[in-house]
Design brief:
Length: 498
Amino acid sequence: MSVNVSMAAIPAAVTDFIRGSHKLLIDGKWIAPASGKTFFTHNPADGRKLADIAAADAQDVDLAVAAARRAFEDGPWSKMTPATRAKLIWRLADALEAKAEEFAFIETLDNGKPLNDAKVVDLPHSIEVLRYFAGWCTKLNGESISLSNPGTWHAYTMREPVGVVGSITPWNAPLMMAVSKIAPALAAGCTVVLKPAEQTPLTALKLGQLILDVGFPDGVVNILTGFGETAGAAITAHPGIDKVTFTGSTDVGRIIIKAAANDFKRVTLELGGKTPVIVFPDADIDRAIEGAARSIFSNAGQICNAGSRLYAHRDVFDRLVEGVSRRAGEFRVGPGLEASTQMGPVVSQEQLDRISGFIASGKSQGAEVRAGGGRIGTEGYFVEPTVLTGTRPDMDVMQHEIFGPVLCAMSYEEADLDRIAREANSTSYGLGAVLWTRDLSTAHKMARKLKAGTVRVNGGGLDPALPFGGFKQSGWGRELGREGVEAYTELKSVAMAL
Ligand code: NAP
Ligand code: MG
């Protein structure tokens, strides 16, 4: 970590917001939790207390679900035309854009990520997701269906909103996650009860204020801060919720499926990943090195599709490992508010301990540390960008999502695509896969063989139009794109004898 820090000055509006009293957004009003309980969040850069937050409980969930139900069934929202809904969502995007600087600061203070990342990734993506889904409001069409007795029957389908949606989000990209759940739900005509992660609730609360400011009717979006075991569990079990959409750990995903099974709630799950980065000998190796380093060290590795397993052909393996290890050493780790920071702290003491535990287990099972491997300093939750070699498929570091800046690198012998795909597919996850090759045939063949929701070739980012989700234990369903909004609808068939 650098010693001479030149920290960005926090705008007064941000300090005022963070220090203010934070309540729950229910039925268009900010109200104190029924229990009167609060908890506090930390600034991951120094471990100090950041903000006092209201702790919602089952009673608050009841109120929020009732408000969302009223808004869905009887309120102005239920009668609003799709074009008017689109205008409101677009207005929310404009309001977010106008306050992007404040949101970026709040995200950095709450989550730890570099301010520049918040400004160039989290905010623009959140704004674009809102605008993208605003466009879908007016385009959710059914089809007319050709039946086997033409002329005697007429039939068509239509899409209706699924109803009241419970959304539960994680802490790694708090605003992006909240928006990625709220925007398609609103576009489809649903109402929402959102529970952000306990570690990072602030940008969701600030978004709640913008939702009121731009004129969404009461009860359309309700925001309940609190814990998963209480507020989250009450949402997933609530009979008034029609659909649950969740991003987070595979373990909690499993709990949610069970809770939702009671009344067959619709469920969309975006869970963990263990994305392989496969480098073929013909690849542009310098670009592959940079891409592999960014894929695992961006956001301190706290990205569900972080490229956490590197597979490189033996001819290029040493060059890749040396290159990525050199980049690991160059990555400037520090507080998110410091201008030169490229990697911030991880989100919490719990994550720091979890990542340190994985590195220790890798070492004890025989992995070699080629870069990093330790904590930085004693204040805040800083981990060194880490590269491990000598990792075998059966090791814990290879099977589990570490959710930290830890890369496991392995080589493969010959270019047998089936064998490479088998290794790449050998975890319980299936969220992403990355290929580095200049050979079109290799790229297309591998894209078919990989069991992953998204295959990226030679880079490529996140786009609101591109469906995102996982095979296997990485989830159910897709977010973003057409599939992302259709996931908030029920399809109705109408058949008519002529
Ligand atoms: P988590 O527990 O799955 O948290 C995600 C969200 O689920 C939070 O809002 C959480 O509330 C809530 N939740 C927890 N238990 C719940 C329950 N029983 N019912 C309903 N909601 C519940 O994740 P975590 O513990 O913060 O992180 C642990 C690991 O999960 C990470 O190391 C990483 O591997 C993985 N993870 C993956 C992603 C991803 O994008 N795929 C994101 C975050 C974490 P609380 O605020 O109380 O936890
Ligand atoms: Mg948790």
